[in-house]
Every structure is written in C-alpha cells, then in structure tokens.
Amino acid sequence: MLRVQNVTKIFGNRTAVDQINFRIDGPAFVGIIGRSGAGKSTVLRMMNRLTDASSGAIEVDGQNILALQGAQRREWQSQCAMIFQQFNLVPRLDVASNVLHGLLNRRSTLTTFFNLWPRSDILRALEILDRLGIAEQAPKRAEALSGGQQQRVAIARALMQDPKIILADEPIASLDPMNAQVVMDTLKRINTEDGRMVIANLHTLDTARRYCDRVIGMRDGRIVFDGVPSQLSTGV
Ligand code: ADP
Ligand code: ADP
What we know:
Helix content: 25-40%
GO molecular function: ATP binding
InterPro entries: AAA+_ATPase, ABC_transporter-like_ATP-bd, ABC_transporter-like_CS, ABC_transpr_PhnC, MetN_ABC_transporter-like, P-loop_NTPase
Radius of gyration: 18 Å
Bound molecules: adenosine-5'-diphosphate
Protein name: Phosphonate ABC transporter ATP-binding protein
Pfam family, one: ABC_tran
Number of strands: 10
Number of helices: 8
Keywords: ATP-binding, Cell membrane, Membrane, Nucleotide-binding, Translocase, Transport
C-alpha cells in the first residue's frame, strides 16, 4: 500500500535522509526510532509533503505522492494527517474549534473565517472528542488543558480529516509517563479499531516494543534496522 523508494533529502551539503526504502502493507503500527538528527522527522515531513524530497518516490496505491501538486497535494495532506510533539493547537481557541480546523482544507474560506461550521461538522467534532474521552473539554481554551489532553485534541483534529494514515512526530516526547500512555493507547485504538496506518517517530525502545508491530531504526539518514520489535537489540 505504501512504498518508499530510494528517498533522499539533502539540506545544503548535509544528507538528512539517504536512499531509504521500505514498504508497509495494510494498517500496521510502525515505529521509527533513532537518535536526534537521524532523519526521522524529515521522513515523515516528506511523506506529508511538508518538505520536498531531493529524489526518490513514495507510492501509495500506485500513485507517486511526491509528484502531486496543488489541490491533489492538499488532498493527499488530508489523507495523511500529522501530529506533532508540541501539539500545534491554536492555544486561545476553544477545543471544539481546534478540532474543526482539521477541515480547513475542505471547507470554504467563508465557513472557516466566520466560524460558520455546518451542524454536521460540529456534531462530528463532538463525537470524536467523546470517543477520545475529552468531550467535556470542548468549550475550554486549548491552552487550559493538560499536555495529554492537548495531544488528544490534536488527534481528534487529525481524525476530522478521516485520514488513511496518521503520522506522529514524537507524539509523547513532551508528556509525563501517564499522559504518554493515554496518548499511545489512543493511537493504538485508532490503528486497530479504525484500520488506519500509524507511523510514529519515537525515541524510546520501550514504547516501540510495547505498541509497534514493526520498528524501523534509523542512523545518519539510513535504515539500520527493519523488523518486529522482539528482534530489536539496543544500539540503534
Ligand atoms: P530526527 O527527527 O531524527 O531528529 P531530523 O529529520 O529532524 O532528525 O534531522 C535530520 C538531519 O537533517 C539533522 O542533521 C538536521 O539538523 C537536518 N535538518 C533537518 N531539517 C533541516 C532544515 N530545515 N534545514 C537544514 N537541515 C535540516
Ligand atoms: P526534532 O529533532 O524534534 O525533529 P529539530 O530541533 O531537529 O527537531 O528541528 C526543528 C525544526 O528546525 C524543524 O523544522 C527542522 O526542519 C528545522 N531544522 C533542524 N535542523 C536544522 C538545521 N540544521 N538548519 C535549519 N533548520 C533545521
């Protein structure tokens, strides 16, 4: 379903990602691990088209998503929603509106600018918040929530897009262990219950072992491990 072929990213004279190849079939939960600077974020950002690759192809259902332009590129970005370490919510905006922002690309400027969301969108946002256990937070400002709750709001915003793939860039790196577990459990549910592929950059082996079906280890822009977590030794 998703095939990364010889993908390379060069910044100036630094090769951040060096000719990587992997294939993911079906709705797996894949962890990418490696030290800071290994190239993990760059891989996710190229998949989501936030960063352009220097060379290579990423095929999804037979289409090279690295070649998509304009509206097609935006449509692809809706299909692979991204979650960030720092949540990237609008802090002073209420939680429900933050979740509705998942539809920014799909509704008219008039709707989004004047906050005139259709009732069906609002109901769906509330349903998703309810599913993630934070419905009662809907009217609060995002900044009033705990980190774990904010990350669940970010996941709810991603789910508004009904994405095939969720890309999570260090989703628990700013959270305490308890909140980290809630967020990882939430991502796991979305993977198993909805059948969405999840690719998460993680910095601890323990988390990867616990949640991932497969782990890709990176070092200096290259893949140095690709397999099931039980085969994983330390030293990536
Ligand atoms: P990781 O996510 O594993 O920490 P990154 O993908 O963020 O790694 O970075 C990989 C390498 O690419 C690092 O050396 C980083 O400094 C470099 N890099 C990342 N983004 C940029 C950028 N926008 N400009 C220049 N170098 C970058
Ligand atoms: P992380 O390691 O969590 O991925 P970084 O601190 O490496 O985050 O990068 C944060 C931001 O800075 C990213 O947008 C990345 O593209 C950019 N960046 C990283 N390294 C460099 C660099 N050497 N030169 C310019 N931008 C960079």
